TrEMBL record:
This is Tektin. Belongs to the tektin family. One of its GO terms (cellular component) is axoneme. GO terms for biological process: cilium assembly; cilium movement involved in cell motility. Pfam families: Tektin. Microtubule inner protein (MIP) part of the dynein-decorated doublet microtubules (DMTs) in cilia and flagellar axoneme. Forms filamentous polymers in the walls of ciliary and flagellar microtubules. Transmembrane segments: none annotated. Keywords: Cell projection, Cilium, Coiled coil, Cytoplasm, Cytoskeleton, Flagellum. Residues 56-83, 341-386 form a coiled coil. Its main location: cytoplasm. It is found in: Cytoplasm, Cytoskeleton, Cilium axoneme; Cytoplasm, Cytoskeleton, Flagellum axoneme. Microtubule inner protein component of sperm flagellar doublet microtubules. InterPro entries: Tektin-like, Tektins.
Length: 406
């Protein structure tokens, strides 16, 4: 208890002085270190701030450059898309022209084929492989060739339209991505430290996934532009080809159509001339037939007329044979009657034989004339049938064909 109440030890004044000096020195040393830390901290903060600002400025500059690059390529893609869309629309009008041209070729071909079928109904000698038929066959071949060529060109046009639309789709997809990327970079350019929705994203710095190099990025859009240019150039060349094909096809069809029409006109004229000549011959034959019939009648009458003198002479002679008794005298009259009968009979027999021979010849000629008349009438009917087929059926049917420029 006595120890507990014992007073604490006392220090020497020098010790107190030393202790105070040490406290002061320690405090000043601590203060100095603290000031250095503060100064270093401020320097570091300033350096970090400057570095951050520099980095931010550089990033902003890069983002702005990127935005300009995206805008440039977006404008390029927009231009190519507009050109591609316009070219496709124009090519679609050419496709419509091809389709209408194909449709307009069907009627002339059907008419040409009908003309060929109708002309198979010509009869007799008129069923000839004439110039009209040759040109009709050629016209059908020309039309079939045009239809085949237009069909192939239409297929080629459909394929080019498909390629144009494929290029358009690639441009649209690229433009869509460019638009999205530009919106994202616009958003990034607008961000500041005070933006409310800025946040931490631990995995944002990773470059794994589908990242491409700037070169690949440029190549991708450049390839889309080149493909669009290629298809547009192909489309332009195809349109020029279609123009040439349609023009040439229309000219070929018109030319052959007119050649066939000229051949028809010439053929109809020839058939009409032949028919007219046959009709002239028929009239001549009919006149000759009438003359021959009169001649036969005259010959028959002449033969009949020769019977009269013979009958008279024989009647006289027969009458004098009935004289009675001595009157039945062989006198000069009797002698002359007998001589007359013999002479007349002889002459008449000779004349009748000649007349009968002539009559037989005349009747034979009449039969020949009848056969000739029948043959001419049949041939005239053949010509009339040919004229009906060529002039009425074919030529009138061909009048409905008018070949416009495609």
């Amino acid at each position: 208890m006595a120890r507990l109440l014992q007073a604490p030890p006392k220090f020497h004044p020098s010790e107190w002085d030393i202790a105070n000096k040490m406290q002061r020195a320690s405090t000043e040393s601590q203060k100095s270190r603290s000031e250095r830390v503060i100064a270093e901290s401020r320097r570091l903060l300033d350096e970090i701030e400057k570095t951050t600002q520099k980095t931010r400025s550089d990033v902003n500059k890069k983002i702005e450059q990127r935005r300009e690059e995206i805008k440039f390529w977006k404008q390029e893609l927009d231009n190519k898309l507009e050109q591609t869309v316009h070219e496709t629309e124009v090519l679609l009008t050419f496709k419509t022209r091809l389709e209408k041209s194909l449709e307009s070729c069907k009627e002339p071909l059907i008419i040409a084929q009908k003309c060929l079928l109708n002309r198979q109904k010509r009869a007799g000698i008129d069923l000839v492989h004439d110039e009209v038929e040759q040109e009709l066959v050629k016209e059908a071949e020309v039309l079939q060739g045009v239809i085949a060529l237009l069909g192939r060109t239409l297929e080629q046009t459909n394929e080019q339209i498909r390629l144009n639309r494929s290029a358009k789709y690639n441009l649209e997809m690229d433009l869509k991505d460019k638009f999205t990327a530009l919106m994202i970079d616009d958003y990034c350019a607008s961000l500041t430290n005070n933006t409310p929705d800025s946040r931490y994203a631990d995995r944002a710095v990773k470059t794994e996934g589908n990242f491409v190099s700037p070169e690949d990025w440029i190549d991708f859009s450049n390839l889309n532009v080149e493909k669009a240019d290629k298809q547009r150039n192909n489309s332009l060349a195809l349109r020029a080809l279609i123009d040439g094909i349609l023009s040439q096809a229309a000219n070929d069809m018109r030319k052959q159509h007119e050649v066939v029409n000229v051949a028809f006109r010439n053929q109809v004229k020839e058939v009409k001339d032949a028919k007219h000549k046959l009709e002239t011959l028929l009239a001549m034959v009919m006149d000759e037939t009438a003359s021959q019939e009169k001649n036969i009648a005259a010959l028959k009458k002449a033969i009949a007329d020769k019977e009269g003198p013979v009958k008279v002479a024989q009647t006289r002679l027969e009458a004098r044979n009935h004289r009675p008794n001595v009157e039945l005298c062989y006198d000069t009259a009797q002698y002359r009657l007998m001589s007359e009968v013999q002479e007349i009979t002889k002459n008449i027999q000779r004349q009748v034989e000649m007349l009968k021979d002539m009559l037989a010849q005349a009747e034979a000629e009449l039969k020949g004339l009848s056969r000739r008349q029948l043959s001419l009438e049949e041939e005239i009917q053949v010509k009339e049938n040919t004229l009906y087929i060529d002039e009425v059926l074919c030529m009138q049917m061909r009048e409905s064909v008018y070949i416009n420029n495609f």
